[in-house]
Description:
Bound molecules: xanthosine-5'-monophosphate
Shape: globular
Strand order of the largest sheet: 3-2-1-4-5
Amino acid sequence: xxxxxxxxxxxxxxxxxxxxxxxxxxxxxxxxxxxxxxxxxxxxxxxxxxxxxxxxxxxxxxxxxxxxxxxxxxxxxxxxxxxxxxxxxxxxxxxxxxxxxxxxxxxxxxxxxxxxxxxxxxxxxxxxxxxxxxxxxxxxxxxxxxxxxxxxxxxxxxxxxxxxxxxxxxxxxxxxxxxxxxxxxxxxxxxxxxxxxxxxxxxxxxxxxxxxxxxxxxxxxxxxxxxxxxxxxxxxxxxxxxxxxxxxxxxxxxxxxxxxxxxxxxxxxxxxxxxxxxxxxxxxxxxxxxxxxxxxxxxxxxxxxxxxxxxxxxxxxxx
Length: 319
Ligand code: XMP
């Protein structure tokens, strides 16, 4: 794509001009946006960039390892992996309000990031994978003028506190354009095509209290669901698909025994930008097969339901 190749060169020049010989720190989330930003900035200024990956313990199965391996070993981008899961889970313990969860995660994220940046001896610049829709959504959301439906923590907060200048090479782009740029930069297709994943991670897919046990159950169910979606060739037709672990236990029967376990809700939507969405129309056989696998393979779930709510009136995430 020649347009994106021109954009890439233009942004590399711009980043070099802005940064000079300064040091840049980039918070890596494991998502497409911050990854593309990091690779682009690394191409521009090399090891003047250090990435920090704050692992909040709310990622999906094996996700953190994959991200760290890719950046450190494949791209040779200096990367600090901070395992802060203990602190995050401790502070989230007993919290059930969605916005409170977001606030706790946002605050801890900033504190952890800040502490690591200090250990690195500081930096003049903070890089973020902010997209054009992030800029708009942080101002107002789809609920109508000036109504905040959900507070997204990926914009704002850090720069003011840390007294750093922002480097935001994706600020003019939409998601699909970031993907084109990522391809242009040689990021693997499996990574580029990944569904968006929210900053607060599995915390907002675990309505009610969050415990390590529940997170573990959710991770297993989610991995099976995504595995079935990939195997059936539907992954790229879907904007986002994920499992939600409901704080509800139901009675079931397995063998000759009674079970009393959690309900897992499956969600999949199509969307252009996440602002509106339609529930994805799976074939019933697919859903039946997936439900059977989840119930058979995951200890702790004995019932699976499918969410047929579109946005609006629902939102994509349950919290
Ligand atoms: P909703 O649930 O508001 O989601 O329809 C729209 C898109 O935003 C993602 N999302 C978040 N992303 N921090 C994020 O970084 C958040 O707190 C958050 N809440 C929702 C969601 O996954 C979807 O892509």
